[in-house]
Specification:
The chain has about 325 residues and is an alpha+beta fold. The protein has three domains: about 1-70, Uridine Diphospho-n-acetylenolpyruvylglucosamine Reductase, domain 2; about 75-225, Uridine Diphospho-n-acetylenolpyruvylglucosamine Reductase, domain 3 (2-Layer Sandwich); about 235-335, UDP-N-acetylenolpyruvoylglucosamine reductase, C-terminal domain (Uridine Diphospho-n-acetylenolpyruvylglucosamine Reductase, domain 1), CATH 3.90.78. The protein is built from eight helices and 20 strands. It has helices spanning about 30-35, 40-45, 95-105, 200-205, 210-225, 245-255, 270-280, 305-325; strands at about 1-10, 20-25, 45-50, 55, 60-70, 75-80, 85-90, 130, 130-135, 140-145, 150-155, 175-185, 235, 245, 260-265, 265-270, 285, 290, 300, 335. It has a five-stranded antiparallel sheet with strand order 6-7-12-10-11, with no helix packed on it. A four-stranded mixed sheet has the order 1-2-5-3. The chain has a four-stranded antiparallel sheet with strand order 13-19-18-17, covered by helices on one side. A hairpin with a 5-residue loop joins strand 10 and strand 11 (about 150-155). The chain is globular and about 60 Å long. The model has no long low-confidence stretch (mean pLDDT about 95). Bound molecules: flavin-adenine dinucleotide.
């Protein structure tokens, strides 16, 4: 176990913002973690869990201990002619895990290709893209209970998955450390090419629909649309798509007949990117922070922005959206 003091977090968050942790501890095994959470250093400081740092914005130095969860490995637990059950440890890179599964033609997570971050954080906000959500493949999530170091298992239905949400993002945040996730994948995959430009991209690439080809097509689409965090710091979508009632939508439609929306349970989800574009913020620069010029949901670190500047831009967008549409735009990224 390595304990670093006054450690720069710049390379550990995809926004690439500078902030320092009073302590950073890299944890490589469950046993090491169980020991560490009983130490004085842990018990006498506030703490933050960190995976790949791709859904986090540091707006100040962190005056506590950051636990970087690095557990590696994956085990096939069982398989039959239809399914494979695979347990992957929290510190595995999500996209490498996706590649491993698609290479084996195990379906279920191919539409979640090229999402940055780790396996252990995939349930936290129930990552989703291109018509898929990770919750539909998760059997269970294994955790360490911080209070006493016990290992427990949350079954899928206990995780209270929702749109970019789970129990781990809210109710039990900082009570458990996710150590591994068990997935059920399909050996006879049902392919989903109906979302976005997947079909067109497959045609352009002269590829037949298959698990691995969908993954390849989505990787290309995302590459063309989203800024590479290594070039322009960002955390993907900064905001969630807001949910409104039918009455609210009807009022908005009178003023904005072209508003983009889609049904969501009994309500309607508005495309947050469309709203931001409509208020004229797409591509706008504010100091060192900016709204991405191809995808208005993404805020970027243009040039050494401070976390506070990016948050300031986000708050300005929230305020303008409220004024224009009477809609609360919720931030998806974890603000620290
Ligand atoms: C270019 C880009 C594109 C993106 N596209 C998408 C997308 O299409 N869909 C999508 O859903 N997301 C997307 N994201 C957001 C992000 O990739 C995901 O939310 C990802 O799951 C975050 O993983 P991470 O390991 O980086 O988490 P981190 O940012 O490190 O942590 C996220 C949260 O989980 C907590 N946490 C960390 N480790 C643990 C643990 N072991 N146990 C419990 N809690 C923990 C942290 O405290 C924090 O609150 C994108 C991000 C980028 C940069």
């Amino acid at each position: 176990m390595q304990i670093k003091e006054n450690y720069s977090l710049k390379a550990l968050n995809t926004f690439g913002v500078e902030a320092r942790a009073k302590y950073l501890v890299e944890l490589n095994s469950i046993e090491e973690t169980q020991k560490f959470i009983k130490s004085d250093l842990f018990l006498n400081n506030k703490f933050l869990l960190l995976g790949g740092g791709s859904n986090i914005l540091f707006t100040q130095d962190y005056d506590g201990v950051i636990l970087k969860i690095n557990y590696k490995g994956k085990d096939i637990i069982s398989a039959d002619e239809n399914n494979v059950y695979i347990k992957a440890f929290a510190g595995e890179t999500w996209d490498e895990f996706v590649n491993y599964c698609t290479f084996n033609n195990w379906g279920g997570i191919e539409n979640l290709t090229a999402i940055p971050g780790n396996v252990g954080t995939s349930p936290v906000q129930n990552i989703g893209a291109y018509g898929a959500e990770v919750k539909d493949t998760i059997v269970s999530v294994e955790v360490i209970r911080i209070e006493d170091g016990e290992i427990l298992t949350f079954k899928n239905e206990e995780c209270k998955f929702g749109y970019r949400n789970s129990i781990f993002k809210n109710e039990v945040k900082n009570k458990y450390i996710i150590t591994s996730v068990t997935f059920k994948l399909d050996k006879q995959p049902k392919l989903n090419t109906s979302y976005g430009a997947i079909k067109e991209e497959l045609e352009k690439m002269y590829l037949e629909p298959s698990v691995i080809n969908i993954s390849k097509a989505i990787a290309v689409i995302r590459q063309n649309k989203l800024p590479d965090p290594k070039v322009k710091g960002n955390a993907g979508s900064f905001f969630k798509n807001p949910v409104v009632t039918k009455e609210h939508l009807d009022t908005l439609l009178l003023k904005y007949p072209k508003i983009r929306y889609f049904p969501s349970d009994n309500d309607f989800k508005l495309a947050a990117g469309w709203l931001i574009e409509k208020i004229g913020m797409k591509g706008k620069t504010f100091g060192n922070a900016a709204v991405h010029n191809k995808q208005a949901l993404v805020l970027i670190n243009n040039d050494n922005a401070k976390g506070k500047e990016i948050l300031g831009l986000a708050n300005l967008i929230q305020q303008k959206i409220k004024e224009a549409f009477d809609v609360e735009l919720e931030i998806e990224v974890n603000i620290v």
